[in-house]
Amino acid sequence: MKVDDVRKLSVKEIMDKIEPVEYSDLDTRQRLAVLKKVSKILDLDLSKEMLYFLLDGCTAKLIIATAGAGKTTGSSLSVNFEKITRNTTKGTPLNKGRVLYLVYNVHNVGQMKEKSNLMSTRLKIRGKIDVNPYVEVYTFHKFCSEMSKQFIKYDKYIDRTLLAEHEVESMFKSAYELLCKQKKVTPKPEMVKDIIKCYNICKENLTDYEDIDTFEQFLSLDLDKDLAVSIFNAYDKLKERRRKFDFTDMLVSLLEILQNHEDARKEMQQTYDYIIADEVQDLSRIMFEILRLVKGDKVPLLCIGDEDQSIYSFRGANLDNILKFTDIFEDGKVYNLATNRRCRKEIFEASKYVIEHNTLRYNKIMNCKKSGGIMEMIPYNNHESQIYRIIRQLKELPREELDETCICFRNRKSCSILADLLAKNNIPFHAIGGMSAYSHELFKHVMDILDMLKYSYRREYALNLYKILPFVKKADVYKAVGMDIKTHKWVKDRENKHFSEYDLGEAGNKVLTQQFLQAITGVSQIMDTAKMKDYVPKLLQLMDKAFWNDKRYLNKNFEQDDFYRKYVEEFFSVDMTYKEFEVDFAKKTRVIDANVVSERGVTLSTFHKLKGLEFKRVIIMDLDDEIYPNFGRIDEDKRYTPKMKLELKEDATRLFFVAMTRAIDELYLYYLEDRPSIYINWLQDYLAEKQVSETVFDTMKLDIGNSVQSDYVKKEKEIEKKEKPAINTTPSGETKEEKVAQVPPVNNTNFLNSVLNRF
Q1: How far apart are CA 323 and CA 358, in angstroms?
Q2: CA separation for the pair 76, 477 (Å, rounded)
Q3: Which residues contact 472 (CB under 8 A, 6 or more apart)?
């Protein structure tokens, strides 16, 4: 069948004419004919890069998809294309239950199913092609759980029950406190969650406990290594004794089944005809090893990811999954979907300039499809002026534009005051992940103090004493008020007392504690009648003197602390009694909560929560170098090896790149004028280079329109790059030549190009 003949046929006619052949021997012309017809039916403008990877019959492919390159569309298309071509060959069709789609996040499960179903529906309606839409979509943990059930006889955790998150925390806390007592070390309860995180990273990276000091997460704990190892071992023994298992054990269980039982491994490899793994840059080492064993030698595997968007190293994500793909799979090929179809050129070129400062990445081509766009850097003198400028910017927008606007920040602390002011200015908003307007530590701490003073005869409020009294321990307070610290149950026959009447032991007899108790007792006695403006400032001054000197309840950034402190003082120093304030505060909270759960208005989000989303307009705030990325803190930490420092800096840069590339048309970067983020310095260099290059090209009287010629002044560097092979420094410090397929990795390149040009 000639190409010219194929162009005239429908997909069904093509399928009928193709003779039965083995899948691997399917003629490239025939596959291309079907693909082009399918893309026409779906109204897809496929790039040559996407055509290349879809047509290649190798069994292990990695698609490096730059931000906004349409990887979701590409992966869904690949599923449907494989189904059609396999049915075309009259070989092994991809029937129900034979396509496996693995995603990193549970939120992507529904998205992938919907995309696949939508494509199948359009193919059936528009092209009269009936393709079964069914695809098994799992998170890795869910997949491991289901497969372990399939091989139940090998599952060592089958007679155990799954631990809930709070149960894991409780067991770690018990082990931590017991071992601290044995080693005569003062426990720090706030460290428990970080210890759990470190344990999970160790397990998911198949790392021995003794090698825990190779992780930055452990070094940040300031915890003795022997103590940490003992805690991990104690937790494992506790799980075994109680017949429990956790989420990480799901992964361990399936890995051990695949490694130790050949019959199970072969059966698993025969279960699926096609496997797709999404966001592979976020997978841990154990996840990727499971994927390799499930694939085996014959099952086609498509991996999709982008090393520039790897932002979950703190959860154990392993960048080697991408950087060493061709080492893991000997027949593997790497393709680059280089065209960003989301961001306009001004935004894309700026984000590209930022990410190219990283070295742990492929030397790849990146470009964009859209021209124009706005990328603006806005200085502020202090954090107060920043927020009010953002509010003014939002108030100038039409109501419908607010729905297309996102404000993002490094951590949730930045949201506290912003959310309150948005509500006060009647600007609708919602927060991704549920974010309280009063989530900042200082807000919560002052509320704890006032509640305790107001309800001084209630034991449940007196429990907050340890949070505000100097020198007093939590255990002493619990004992005094009659609460069992281990069971969190009230001890019988204990009466309610005023907080000043409790015996707080030796610490309570210290002069500063006694003076502080006397002072706040006086405040508690006037709260029913006095206006809050008359005592709140004095109370906060007292807290400064007795408790907040070390700033442990505030940000590490003191300039920002002053702003929060000023705002909090104004918020609580009102012309009303505390009872009146409670009613008013409840109303404000309801207004804000209504906005928070709303699906309309401005979106508030941390950088991490933005992954996979896009907005017409993005505002990035708090680009203060001591807030983000604070490379100085990393450099000064003597615990970190040079390798760790490099990885931490590049992690931060990738996160900023992800935030920048969420913007479609407009990107606004708010930075502290006296202490700009290093990213602002880079972007100012970029704009200077861009201005020079545009001036040079203008002098040469070249018509370049709106395009950004930022690479002109770096011409010599670019020439050097082209002359050298693409060299990548791997996380282990090694250097190796990486083979990124910028051209089609097939033998008959000229043939393919000639065929493509005719379609």
Answers
A1: 13
A2: 58
A3: 465, 466, 504, 507, 508, 513
Question: What is the CB-side half-sphere exposure of residue 718 using CA atoms within 13 A?
Answer: 9
Give the separation between CA 433 and CA 609, rounded to whole angstroms.
Answer: 8
In 3D space, the residue among 194, 59, 42 whose CA is nearest the CA of residue 124 turns out to be 42
Between strands 274-277 and 301-305, the pairing is: parallel
CA distances from 623 to 386, 408, 620, 675, 740 (A): 10, 11, 8, 9, 34
- The DSSP secondary-structure symbol of 360 reads S
Question: Closest Cα partner for 585 from 601, 596, 574?
Answer: 574
Rounded to the nearest 5 percent, the helix, strand and coil shares of the chain are: 55, 15, 35
Question: Cis omega (within 30 of 0) on the bond before 537?
Answer: no
Other beta carbons within 10 angstroms of residue 90's beta carbon come to 12
* HEC profile of 452-518: HHHCCCCHHHHCCHHHHCCCCCHHHHHHHHCEECCCCEECCCCCCCCHHHCCCHHHHCCHHHHHHHH
Q: At what angle do helices 107-127 and 71-88 cross, to 10 degrees?
A: 50
**Max CA pair span of the chain:** 97
C-alpha 475/C-alpha 314 separation (Å) is 32
pLDDT at 14 over 70: no
The pLDDT value recorded for residue 453 is 87
pLDDT of residue 709: 29
Q: What is the pLDDT of residue 94?
A: 63
Q: How far apart are CA 543 and CA 565, in angstroms?
A: 12
Distance CA 177, CA 186 (A): 8
Q: Which of 117-131, 570-584, 740-754 has the lowest mean pLDDT?
A: 740-754
Q: Integer distance in angstroms from the first to the last C-alpha of the chain?
A: 15
Q: What is the DSSP string of 402-421?
A: HTTEEEEESSGGGHHHHHHH
Residue 355, pLDDT above cutoff 90: yes
Report, as an integer, the average pLDDT of 452-460: 84
Q: Side-chain half-sphere of 133: how many Cα atoms within 13 Å?
A: 13
Give the chain's mean pLDDT.
78
Token pair 């998150």 is found at: 165
Count, residues in the chain: 759
To 10 degrees, what angle do helices 71-88 and 28-41 make?
130
Could you tell me the pLDDT band of residue 588, with boundaries at 50, 70 and 90?
A: low
Residue 136: both structure tokens together: 């098994």
Grade residue 55 by pLDDT with cuts at 50, 70 and 90: confident
How many CA atoms does the CB half-sphere of 645 hold within 13 Å? 13
Q: What is the pLDDT of residue 13?
A: 59
Strand 99-103, strand 136-139: pairing: parallel
CA–CA gap between residue 86 and residue 67 (Å, rounded) = 31
Give pTM, 2 decimals: 0.69
- The answer to whether 253 and 239 have CB atoms below 8 angstroms apart is no
**211-223, pLDDT tens digit by residue?**
988 887 888 777 8
Q: Is the CB of residue 542 less than 8 Å from the CB of residue 548?
A: no
How many Å apart are CA 416 and CA 359, to the nearest integer?
36
